[in-house]
Fold these 2 entries.
Entry 1:
Amino acid sequence: MSFEITVLGCGSASPTSFRNHTSQVVKVQDRCFLIDCGEGTQIQLRKNKIRMQKIQAVFISHLHGDHYFGLPGLLSTFHLLGREKELDVFAPSDLLNILQSLFNASNTYLSYKLNFHPLNFKSPELLFEDKRVEVHSFPLRHSIDTCGFLVKEKIKTRKINRKAVDAFEVPVYELNKIKDGANYIKADGAIVENTKLTFDPEPSLSYAYCSDTMYYPALCDFIKDVDLLYHEATFANDCKVLAKQTKHSTAEQAALIAKKANVKMLMLGHYSARYTDLKLLLNEAKLIFENTVLADDGLNVLL
Amino acid sequence: MSFEITVLGCGSASPTSFRNHTSQVVKVQDRCFLIDCGEGTQIQLRKNKIRMQKIQAVFISHLHGDHYFGLPGLLSTFHLLGREKELDVFAPSDLLNILQSLFNASNTYLSYKLNFHPLNFKSPELLFEDKRVEVHSFPLRHSIDTCGFLVKEKIKTRKINRKAVDAFEVPVYELNKIKDGANYIKADGAIVENTKLTFDPEPSLSYAYCSDTMYYPALCDFIKDVDLLYHEATFANDCKVLAKQTKHSTAEQAALIAKKANVKMLMLGHYSARYTDLKLLLNEAKLIFENTVLADDGLNVLL
């Protein structure tokens, strides 16, 4: 089971012909989430050969258009494709009215149930949870209410030591309990310790998504030790003042957050259209946090 | 002064990776209009190297998303680029509320004045007029209120016959009146007929845009004799029943309209995603109306 992030767009508000607006697909443990949905996302999904109907939940960080103007079109396309599976949308509450007025205007009744969950911008919140995966929101600092998202695997089951299980003649129906950490009790009452029958589980991976935000060190509490941090880096140091004014971050500030939060890897994105060559941003970040990569439309990161 | 149509997108509601949603730029007599604005239009404008700020008016035919979901993003980009020039938007009245709720949600106050003009769907209407150009709307028949648009040049001024003007020693300040058809009265009171001083003007060109509509012969009254007719052709004859159900047209029906309206040239578009090879549609249309071309993303037609 993989944990895979696909960048559909890494540009910021003003579009270019080579960078789409923000959107990412996160596939984890066979779940498929869409985070933000800038204009053109449905075309990017097609181009990246991601099956639209696999998407089970959409998370919208905030209501600046470059982060959600692709959502109405995507929801319409789900409908046109005859989707029946429910869709969960986690987004700022105003989006519900906007969607309703759009669908009223086109006389559209969606073929599927859309479960709308308004975000809260005051404190971290568990948005989604199932047997294997959790998604949390946490507040960012931007010019309007904005959330980041943390996608994490739950602690995985222990791995069966096939040789040991065979040696102790453990019946198949015991295996799931043993994977969950139980000891094996033999017919004569003797106890075989779980650690003799299993290996430690694979590590549980995690991904944090922070766009858009000003430099906001308090967010490190929410994203501590993640395997990959995506942090906006709209500007290089040449526009530090502008970054502050517009409540965005520089690449260096993104790297400072990555370092402080002790993350394993940092991905920069949400670049201002003024930067055609992104090496400047990468270099400024790497001076602070070496394990930094640049997001790019179509980039796949496998954790 | 040219009359030029650029197709930015020619797909229908369900997008493909090779056809964008509907939008066209019409440049006429140095005016620049945008007709419909499907998702991704701003990126298409960039790719086709059309200067965004040249656009002075936008015409939205109806409120199905594939015809206007790119508008909020485009309006935002105008703002981000610091537009000051007013923009006229001609569209169904519901769009105004939609735009207002989108801009409220993002706390956006546009840098320019947006003049919103609600369309009427009952009768033809003159929407725009200046010295050289007119744009009219006319009702189509679709599943929701929909307009077509007619862009036409006014009758052009007569062309000066340089040799004759020199021979009669016409002073420069008389030329504009003569271009408008006046005779020249010499100092001795003798009249020189305008036809001796001028040639006939260039023909006035016209373009009609009809998307989306079911087969609707009554629309021929509005588009008679145009130089180019764009008519939707969502389906081929294999889906004639579906065309009727969804209130769209087949390529053959588009050609019947072209023939009946005595237009000079027909352009098909708004193709269903099911057709990858469009020859079928072209051939079916050509059987009825020979001078037919297929719209394609990026196609430029110079009238």
Entry 2:
Amino acid sequence: MPVSVSVPDEIIIRRRRRNGTANLPDMDGYPFSCPIQVRWRDLDAFGHVNNATFASYLEMARTEAWTSLFGGRDALAIPFFVKRLEIDYRRPIDLDDEVRVWLRVGETRGASFTFEYTVEAGGEVAAEAVTRLACVDKTTGKPVPIDPDVRATLETLQPS
Amino acid sequence: MPVSVSVPDEIIIRRRRRNGTANLPDMDGYPFSCPIQVRWRDLDAFGHVNNATFASYLEMARTEAWTSLFGGRDALAIPFFVKRLEIDYRRPIDLDDEVRVWLRVGETRGASFTFEYTVEAGGEVAAEAVTRLACVDKTTGKPVPIDPDVRATLETLQPS
Amino acid sequence: MPVSVSVPDEIIIRRRRRNGTANLPDMDGYPFSCPIQVRWRDLDAFGHVNNATFASYLEMARTEAWTSLFGGRDALAIPFFVKRLEIDYRRPIDLDDEVRVWLRVGETRGASFTFEYTVEAGGEVAAEAVTRLACVDKTTGKPVPIDPDVRATLETLQPS
Amino acid sequence: MPVSVSVPDEIIIRRRRRNGTANLPDMDGYPFSCPIQVRWRDLDAFGHVNNATFASYLEMARTEAWTSLFGGRDALAIPFFVKRLEIDYRRPIDLDDEVRVWLRVGETRGASFTFEYTVEAGGEVAAEAVTRLACVDKTTGKPVPIDPDVRATLETLQPS
């Protein structure tokens, strides 16, 4: 059963699911998801969403999750930064695809933790991704252990 | 009365309207509107949505209107390009603002026409803008008169 | 004669000027210019530099001019914001175009002033543009008169 | 000894190297590099270059290398797409950092090959990255073996 997390109100997007026989696997392991509004500007000269823009989609979901977990924009004041990014691209995203980023917390350890993502487009898996975020001291900029309360809150987004 | 145009299904965004005493004027003159999902990546180092990103918001609304009017993505094959852009910035847009672009067609003449926009953020006017689009021949790249059917369809988005 | 302004060291870009019979007018009226490195990501699905990206090119030139005038990044602390943007698009910019933004200060008045730009691409005028910037008080966010020293420095970028 | 590859003419950027005691390792293993012009728009609300923008920097270098290897823009017609992206972020990039992306070809196998990158900023390593690109058939969109001539050309960018 998904952990009870305040999922943001839906952004219902009029875009078409490309087909009715989607290959999307069971998403039960992801306690959080965020719909993404694809923009014309996201496309590159190949007519698909640019590979770097996928990273902005992940960031969008991450920011929403963060705000949802830590209550408002001040939450962004918690000093984390992206330490590592991995994206496996499975299929292109088109302008008219309905897109949603599924997110969960992977491991939390010492001074860092991971978010794991599945990017859904047109009812299919468009990408799988992982970001590792590191906690830093605001003054020194050095890595520091994650605050225990922050960690406990993050762990509510781990798969049950 | 707004002209009957197929407005896309809503993208309901959880973001807060900043205040209850919005200064937003009567939007009856705008037959079309498009909610915009603000992304973390839209912000610049001042912490507000970057001035150039407003132009992408206009483009988002324009693309949605175009698709709505001309039926699907193939509509994008109609060769128009942006000839002139004007934006008057009224107030900054923040990450947690609920944003909507209101759009109408202004004048249509010879080989070009205008879209007029009001960008709403947090229940207030964040910007007013105009884009002039020119019709070109696909082969020669030269300006050509707007096709009469295209013009008639565009005019359904003029204020009544 | 151009006012003596410290123009940044060149960014010499390998891109081709498209033709040898450029239509570029005399640029003597512009005391400052900034070469722009076109990126693949700047293109949209039409294969040309996206219309909103032109605004980022202007901003690039503006930031460089600002830094050049006011000495380093702290100069960015001077609280101005973009109040109005106008761009007239003359021809598309391609990935392999050599691009340069020419900039001058137009009028300075009360609490605002203008930058005027010509965007050169492939030896031709790709766009002409104006931005009006307003000076604000950092604490109140209200418009305030431009500091006289700032104004005098800006005026060194007016055409002689 | 670096393989003799036509490195594009330099883009010399006026930005400062932050310190004289750079930790940048020996870059002899990278036969290609591309200077990057950092833009104001690349920064996010934290005041550093956004994590997704690093992927655009890689793409910039990749596009330049590709054009350099395969002779002009038509080279872009060779149908490859990004299959996997990995970035390890080592330090933030600031607006005034001199940035350069170093690039080499890693392994080439069946229908895919890798580019390996080091992103230099202010004389230090700002990121290390790998992208795997897959070759596809234009008509079917299915992976196909890399053309032997393309492979041989790519291998000139492998470390000697």
